[in-house]
Design goal:
Blueprint: E1 26-29, E2 35-38, E3 41-43, H1 48-58, E4 65-66, H2 67-75, H3 83-98, E5 103-106, E6 109-112, H4 120-136, H5 140-152, H6 165-191, H7 195-208, H8 213-225, H9 229-246, H10 253-263, H11 267-270, H12 299-310, E7 318-323, H13 330-340, E8 349-353, H14 364-374, H15 386-397, E9 403-409, H16 412-415, E10 426-431, E11 442-445, H17 451-462, H18 464-469, H19 471-480, H20 485-496, H21 503-511, H22 513-519, E12 521-522, E13 525-526, H23 527-536, H24 540-549, E14 557-558, H25 559-566, H26 570-582, E15 587-590, E16 593-595, H27 598-611, H28 614-639, H29 645-648, H30 662-671, H31 673-681, H32 689-698, H33 701-705, H34 709-725, H35 729-746, H36 749-766, H37 769-785, H38 789-806, H39 809-825, H40 829-846, H41 849-865, H42 869-885, H43 889-905, H44 909-922, H45 928-945, H46 949-966, H47 971-977
Parallel strand pairs: 7-10, 7-11, 8-9, 9-10
Antiparallel strand pairs: 1-2, 2-3, 4-6, 5-6, 12-13, 14-16, 15-16
Helix pairs in contact: 1-3, 4-5, 5-6, 6-7, 6-8, 7-8, 8-9, 8-10, 9-10, 12-13, 14-15, 17-19, 17-20, 19-21, 22-27, 24-26, 24-27, 25-26, 25-28, 28-30, 28-32, 31-32, 31-34, 32-34, 32-35, 34-35, 35-36, 35-37, 36-37, 37-38, 37-39, 38-39, 39-40, 39-41, 40-41, 41-42, 41-43, 42-43, 43-44, 43-45, ...
Length: about 1000
């Protein structure tokens, strides 16, 4: 047979009588992979060639195919010599699967006898016939439903993976029919008014079938009926160009005629077939306020919101809600975005200020009355009740594409009646409250500007010349404004109106925090007034929480700390804090953490000074200090079991948190580090200084972490000065020990020595056991670093006696390990190993993981000098693992450096160089220059031994510069390394 013949894909005039389909009846699919089922069981259809035979027989719909026709279908004009035998083999195999009654042999050929409903193709043909009848009868919706059922029968490409020329030909025919059905269904979509929904599908189809003019025609109509006339005309232009380039022809006449109708804005074309001629055109409101000419930045938000509005046509109740603190620029952003989106809403734009931040928010029924009048509804037709007005409003919006900008909303309940209910319309909402209870809304949290955007806005208002001349001062101004757009606009407007002022003058005025809010007002604009509106909406308990939380200096505050400050249980505190977050007066920095914008914090403090008694303000901060001290002391005790701080620290009246293990305790310490140190620095009230100093003592690990070393030292200096000014010798002595610790970490040994000596004198004067023990211990370490070994030995023996007298076994272990290092420096390696082991034994007995690592560090040094390199490496590796786990970056770097020394001594210079480089990287920014000089010296020696003398000389010269600047004892040793290259 001719391979182009075969069953034409057609819609039959009449359906043949069907037999009832039983549960185990055979059924087949060809509109996708060719498959056979018996009931719910999928049958094996064999090899691709066997499926090709099944396909050829199924598509004949019960008619017999001769052997010659089947050979032609399989192989075309070049069949193999055994073609007939092959066909018979495939037929025999299929008969075993399908049964003798299904695959029959007759007239030298084969046929498959099945009911019409057993093949998806014939079912599709019958459904398509019903759809055509429904359309002819005027029932377009039913026709559309039936066509969708037909298309739903496809499961990918028809006859998927079936080989042979016949299958290829039928695959093409079926794909063409599928396209025709799709065009029919899309035509029906347009007839019933679903043009908006059709656009996206037609866009994809025209891309897949660029030369199919019917699809282009339908796309033009869909776009035109969606109000996108220019795009519809562009489709025609693209089609004309493509046809000319690809085929050298013009578009068919129907397409050209359609273009002309669109150019004429044909009203009949704009209406679906079922849509009656419109009544008089309704009013087209254009109520958007003017956008600001100097709108700056916010590009990501503009793109995000603009994209949502641009695609609102097919979305029911497309709502975007922008939330943020007062003055962050919500209205400015919304108005700007709305103006940019106007072209997507050709039927108009509505706007209302809902006055949600004021004492009397706008009533929804009043707003609806205004909107209905703007949409052309006569006053006499506007009902009285809210529900009736809302229903009429939604009916009026139906079929129109209108943007509604609801500015300054109070809450979701206020705006729900004002929302559109049909596709094509969209609402853009601004509010200080996050609309978490507004179903389906796209929520956007607007934050302050970036520094670059803030400076750009300031420059646009003030002028590039003035700002360019004082860029640093301008950065100070926008930083003082907290990058808040309203504050920047006010500050810039004040400067722009005063030509005699410089930017520096304005920066100086804003530098005074107590006057800053008063300075940020110009005309009817004032930052304080904006915050006042939000504050006035708070319930009494919320207002109290807002005021008191603003007193804390930290960058943020945890829920537990906030509960302590407010003297509430955590659940009650969380309810208040989350309510403040919802009003945008407080931000949720992370789950369980909260923070203020800088200017909002200043306002909260001003409210506290105005509305809270001084004793209540002091009590709140005292409770916060108690909470931090009690919790930090617990962390300290977990890290140092047996340490006497718990017995000697100031008592607290507010309990702290407890932790199950040292890791969770460390997590808390490092998470709270900035807030802890901020609390220390602001604790200057009566009775607070001693507790703040003890809090510093309990958080010693922060000094050695690297991340908080500078802040820790600054806090220690603050507390030393406060203690001196209040003539509190005990507090000053303890503050000096914390400062000594910070300066030892930084490598500033001269300062550390002076602090420790004064601390020891003060401790003796007031009989304070803590600094009495730790001051000589620290002085012994300093003497070690300065090569004053006999002096160091004396100090450390004194420290050991004092620790033993106080019953402080962990302190005793620390002094023993430090004495080990003194003995090592004096050449007494045996006693050095023994002393270090004594310290480790105490630490292990008490369960000291971190301090035990310090003991193993000391033992590793002694073992290295004893020549026991393997043992030394083991001890230092164990110590290094603990230091890393405990986030002690200083000691992690030093342990890595000591391992480099072991490698160098063991004749492994390449490994020593690698570890030295690692140590330099870890110690960047911590440990001080003296330690850096030590690492550079070892690195130079390692490089020299691996044949890189040039790099070695550079390292040694840098180390020499460091030692000379410090006046260190190591100068001569490094000079000896450089002897061959030093002049003279």
């Amino acid at each position: 047979m001719d391979r182009d013949s075969g069953p034409r894909v057609r819609v039959p005039e009449q359906r043949a009588p069907e037999k009832p389909v039983t549960a185990d009846a055979l059924r087949f699919t060809v509109l996708g992979p060719v498959r056979a089922w018996r009931g719910s069981e999928l049958l094996s259809s064999g090899s691709p060639q066997q499926r090709a035979l099944l396909t050829a027989l199924l598509l004949r719909e019960g008619r017999t195919a001769t052997a010659g026709e089947l050979i032609d279908a399989f192989w075309g004009e070049d069949p193999p010599s055994q073609a007939l035998a092959t066909i018979r083999t495939y037929a025999s195999r299929l008969r075993k699967i399908l049964g003798q009654d299904t695959l029959v042999s007759e007239s030298g050929g084969y046929a498959i006898r099945i009911d019409r409903g057993a093949l998806d193709l014939t079912l599709a043909q019958d459904l398509a016939a019903e759809a055509e009848k429904a359309r002819a009868a005027g029932d377009r919706c039913q026709a559309r439903t039936l066509i969708n059922k037909v298309l739903g029968l496809w499961d990918g490409e028809a006859l998927a993976s079936v080989p042979g020329p016949y299958a290829d030909n039928q695959r093409t025919r079926l794909e063409e029919w599928r396209l025709q059905l799709t065009e029919t269904r899309l035509d029906l979509d347009l007839e019933v008014g679903c043009h908006a929904e059709a656009v996206s599908e037609l866009t994809a189809l025209t891309a897949a079938h660029p030369l199919r003019e019917r699809l282009r025609e339908l796309l033009m109509v869909a776009l035109y009926r969606s109000g996108r006339q220019a795009e519809a005309l562009a489709v025609y232009a693209d089609t004309r160009r493509l046809l000319a380039e690809e085929l050298g022809v013009d578009p068919r006449p129907e397409l050209a005629q359609l273009q002309q109708r669109i150019l004429r804005a044909d009203e009949e074309l704009a209406r679906p077939a079922d849509e009656p001629a419109p009544a008089a055109a309704p009013l087209k409101p254009a109520q958007l306020p003017a956008t600001v000419p100097d709108f700056t930045g916010r590009s990501a938000f503009v793109a995000e919101l603009g994209g949502r509005l641009a695609t609102a046509e097919g979305s029911v109740m497309a709502v975007s809600a922008v939330a943020g603190i007062g003055g962050v620029g919500k209205t400015t952003l919304a108005v700007h975005v709305a103006h940019q989106a106007r072209r997507h809403f050709p039927d108009g734009q509505l706007y209302v200020d809902l006055q949600g931040a004021g004492a009397r928010a706008a009533e929804p029924e009043t707003v609806l009355g205004s909107f209905l009048r703007a949409l052309g509804t006569a006053d006499s037709a506007i009902p009285d009740t809210l529900d009736e007005r809302a229903a009429l409003y939604r009916s009026t919006l139906d079929g129109r594409r209108i943007l509604i900008l609801l500015d300054n909303a109070h809450d979701a309940a206020q705006i729900r009646p004002l929302l559109p209910g049909t596709p094509g319309c969209a609402a853009l909402v601004t509010s200080r409250v996050r609309m978490v209870d507004l179903a389906g809304a796209h929520l956007v949290d607007l934050d302050v500007m970036s520094p670059e955007e803030a400076l750009q806005l300031f420059t646009r208002i003030v002028g590039a010349e003035r700002v360019g001349a004082e860029r640093e001062a301008a950065l100070d101004v926008v930083a003082a404004c907290g990058f808040l757009p309203l504050a920047i606009r006010i500050a810039a407007s004040r400067l722009a109106a005063r030509r005699t002022w410089t930017v520096s003058v304005l920066a100086a005025k804003l530098a005074d925090e107590r006057r800053r809010l008063d300075e940020l007002q110009a005309g009817d604009l004032a930052v304080k007034a904006t915050f006042e509106l939000g504050y006035g909406q708070l319930e009494p308990a919320q207002a109290r929480a807002f005021r008191l939380l603003g007193l804390a200096d930290g960058p943020d505050i945890s829920l537990a700390a906030a509960a302590a400050l407010l003297d509430l249980d955590p659940h009650a505190a969380e309810d208040l804090l989350e309510a403040l977050v919802d009003t945008s007066l407080v931000e949720s920095a992370a789950p369980g953490r909260y923070r203020y914008h800088d200017l909002v914090r200043l306002y909260a403090r001003a409210c506290a000074e105005r509305d809270e008694r001084a004793v209540e303000r002091e009590s709140a901060l005292s409770r916060l200090l108690d909470f931090y001290l009690a919790t930090a002391a617990g962390v300290y005790a977990l890290e140092r079991p047996g340490d006497r701080l718990a017995d000697h620290r100031e008592p607290t009246q507010y309990s702290g948190l407890t932790f199950a293990d040292r890791h969770s305790a460390q997590d808390w310490l490092y998470t709270e580090a900035n807030s802890l140190l901020a609390c220390v620095r602001q604790s200057s009230g009566p009775g607070a200084v001693r507790r703040a100093v003890d809090l510093l003592w309990a958080t010693k690990d922060l000094a050695e972490s690297g991340a908080n070393s500078k802040q820790y030292e600054a806090a220690a200096i603050t507390m030393r000065d406060l203690a001196q000014s209040s003539d509190d010798a005990r507090a000053e002595g303890r503050a000096l020990i914390t400062l000594t610790n910070a300066r030892l970490v930084a490598g500033r040994f001269d300062q550390a020595e002076r602090d420790a000596q004064r601390a020891m004198r003060l401790a003796h004067a007031v009989d304070d056991p803590l600094p009495s023990c730790w001051a000589p211990n620290d002085l012994g370490i300093i003497a070690l670093y300065k090569n004053r070994h006999a002096e160091g030995e004396a100090y450390l023996k004194q420290a050991i006696d004092n620790f033993r007298a106080d019953g402080n076994r962990p302190g005793e272990a620390s002094a023993l390990c430090n004495l080990s290092r003194i003995h090592l420096a004096m050449g007494n390696t045996t006693s050095a190993v023994a002393l270090a082991q004594q310290g480790i034994d105490i630490y292990d007995e008490l369960g000291h993981a971190l301090r035990g690592a310090n003991g193993r560090y000391a033992l590793g040094l002694a073992l290295t000098q004893s020549g026991r390199f393997a043992d030394a490496t083991e001890q230092l590796h164990d110590a290094l693992a603990v230091f890393r786990d405990s986030r002690q970056r200083l000691w992690e770097g030093m342990a890595t450096f000591r391992l480099a020394e072991v490698d160098l001594a063991a004749g492994l210079p390449a490994q020593a160089a690698t570890k030295s480089e690692q140590a330099l990287a870890i110690l960047r920014g911590i440990g001080g220059e003296w330690r850096r000089g030590n690492v550079l010296t070892v690195l130079g020696r390692a490089l020299s031994e691996i044949g890189q003398p040039g790099r070695a000389q550079v390292c040694w010269r840098e180390a020499l510069d460091i030692y000379e600047s410090l006046g260190s004892a190591e100068i001569e040793a490094v000079r000896m390394l450089l002897v061959p290259t030093l002049p003279g």
